[in-house]
């Protein structure tokens, strides 16, 4: 490991901890999700270790409906940690400092949404962020800074890069496990076949992954909107926006040439769907072989069952499988066959596996699969795709400094 961890932390420290509790908010209610569960491990370990634990996190972006206070988050963290979590509606003003200073050993306090502090955003160099009033005011009240927010570490924001230059900095448990698993495709050698399942809505994610990992990955199994764009580049009559849709046209214009040349250069490694699923006139799932599609008359919402039958043995023969993006609109049960099929195959083998993408990993609990059957289920979205493609994460880089 290239950074210090909680194992290196001295005893009885005043610790400032950055978590990523950014969560869906429905009708003003913050939704519990696996980020709380994962970070609870770090928070519990610190509190039980007798440290004074002050937590920072963000929620939403200024102007958005989900840009809300962290008051509800405190209750959810408390439930997961199994200990009381105090909350103060202030980021670094007098109220926050008073609350920090009155904390006893083993107690936990959550500060207000870091993005309510003007200096948190925008993205700037770590040195600039370290120099902000926010960082300069808070840092002297602490002995150590712990960053556990791997999933936000691609942002060069004050709470993610500034404190690491002012305080001894450590990686939390989530930071450690996410970093190790998500970087493994770029850093580890596998004996057998390495397979990558790529889908979702963003063609550029798939293109970046192929460009960066083409020499590490034996087979790319495609699906989702991105997969349809590759099918279209291969000469099939799919991947068109019908009235009211805006998935394909812009992405096609922007990426057509790149996709065509990837198919030219890496065609042997790229497996495309041989059949697709759609909603039929009775609102049921219908399937059609790609070779039989002659008209652009309907949206396709999943890969078909023959495709799953072809992908399944490839996964079962693999030494390592990485997943980025869903193979279909899995939130609708009728179109979950592709995504659930590949996840099921992964869960039934003992290959090394990493499943990522904020949306895709939700399919695991939604369809009753057990997270323990996967090597690692990432809680990161943007940070995951960057890690896969070997791009540095600002919040990780500063932890690597002495
Ligand atoms: N054919 C399709 N039609 C419509 N939606 C699709 C289709 N295939 C996949 N999706 C949608 O793609 C979404 C996942 O795509 P996304 O690119 O966001 O991937 P992710 O990696 O899970 O998430 P993120 O990048 O947000 O962390 C799913 O919610 C799924 O409903
Ligand atoms: O939820 C996330 O992916 C991270 O918290 C980053 O959030 P952001 O995209 O609003 O910076």
From TrEMBL:
Keyword Transferase part of the UniProt annotation: yes
Annotated GO MF terms: ADP binding; ATP binding; phosphoglycerate kinase activity
Annotated catalysed reactions: (2R)-3-phosphoglycerate + ATP = (2R)-3-phospho-glyceroyl phosphate + ADP
Binding site for substrate: 20-22, 35, 58-61, 115, 155
Residues engaged in binding ATP: 331, 357-360
Entry GO terms, CC: cytosol
Keywords: ATP-binding, Cytoplasm, Glycolysis, Kinase, Nucleotide-binding, Transferase
Subcellular location: Cytoplasm
GO biological process, alphabetically ordered: gluconeogenesis; glycolytic process
Positions that bind (2R)-3-phosphoglycerate: 35, 115, 155
Enzyme Commission number(s) of this protein: 2.7.2.3
Pathway(s) it belongs to: Carbohydrate degradation; glycolysis; pyruvate from D-glyceraldehyde 3-phosphate: step 2/5
Chief localisation class: cytoplasm
Nucleotide-binding in keyword set: yes
Pfam families in alphabetical order: PGK (PF00162)
Matching InterPro entries: Phosphoglycerate_kinase, Phosphoglycerate_kinase_CS, Phosphoglycerate_kinase_N, Phosphoglycerate_kinase_sf
Entry similarity comment: Belongs to the phosphoglycerate kinase family.
Subunit (UniProt): Monomer.
PANTHER family: PHOSPHOGLYCERATE KINASE, PHOSPHOGLYCERATE KINASE 1, CHLOROPLASTIC-RELATED
Protein's name in the database: Phosphoglycerate kinase
Organism of this sequence: Haloferax profundi
Species classification: Archaea, Methanobacteriati, Methanobacteriota, Stenosarchaea group, Halobacteria
Gene designation per UniProt: pgk
């Amino acid at each position: 490991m290239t950074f210090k961890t909680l194992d290196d932390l001295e005893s009885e420290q005043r610790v400032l901890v950055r978590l990523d509790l950014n969560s869906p908010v429905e009708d003003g209610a913050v939704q519990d999700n696996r980020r709380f569960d994962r970070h609870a491990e770090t928070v519990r370990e610190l509190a039980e270790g007798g440290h004074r634990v002050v937590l920072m996190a963000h929620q939403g972006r200024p102007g958005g409906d989900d840009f809300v206070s962290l008051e509800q988050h405190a209750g959810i963290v408390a439930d997961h940690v199994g200990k009381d979590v105090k909350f103060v509606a202030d980021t670094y003003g007098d109220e926050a400092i008073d609350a920090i200073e009155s904390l006893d050993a083993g107690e936990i306090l959550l500060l207000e949404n870091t993005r309510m502090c003007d200096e948190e955003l925008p993205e700037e160099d770590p040195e600039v962020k370290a120099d902000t009033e926010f960082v300069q005011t808070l840092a002297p009240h602490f002995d150590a800074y712990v960053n556990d927010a791997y999933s936000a570490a691609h942002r060069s924001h004050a709470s993610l890069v500034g404190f690491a230059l002012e305080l001894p900095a450590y990686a939390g448990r989530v930071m450690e496990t996410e970093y190790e698993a998500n970087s493994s495709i770029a850093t580890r050698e596998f004996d057998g076949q390495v397979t990558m399942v790529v889908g979702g809505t963003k063609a550029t994610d798939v293109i970046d992954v192929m460009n960066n990992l083409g020499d590490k990955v034996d087979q790319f199994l495609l699906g989702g909107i991105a997969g349809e764009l590759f099918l279209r580049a291969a000469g099939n009559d799919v991947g068109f926006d019908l009235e009211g849709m805006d998935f394909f046209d812009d992405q096609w214009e922007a990426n057509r040439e790149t996709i065509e040349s990837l198919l030219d250069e890496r065609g042997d490694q790229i497996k495309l769907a041989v059949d697709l699923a759609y909603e039929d006139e009775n609102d049921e799932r219908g399937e059609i072989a790609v070779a039989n599609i002659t008209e652009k008359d309907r949206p396709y919402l999943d890969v078909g069952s023959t495709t799953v039958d072809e992908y399944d043995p490839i996964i079962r023969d693999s030494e390592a499988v990485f997943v980025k993006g869903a193979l279909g609109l899995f939130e609708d049960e009728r179109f979950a066959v592709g995504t659930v099929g590949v996840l099921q195959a992964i869960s039934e083998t003992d290959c090394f596996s990493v499943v990522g993408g904020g949306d895709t990993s939700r399919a695991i609990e939604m369809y009753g699969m057990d997270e323990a059957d996967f090597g690692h289920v990432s809680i990161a979205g943007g940070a995951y795709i960057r890690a896969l493609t070997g791009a540095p994460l600002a919040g990780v880089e500063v932890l690597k400094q002495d």
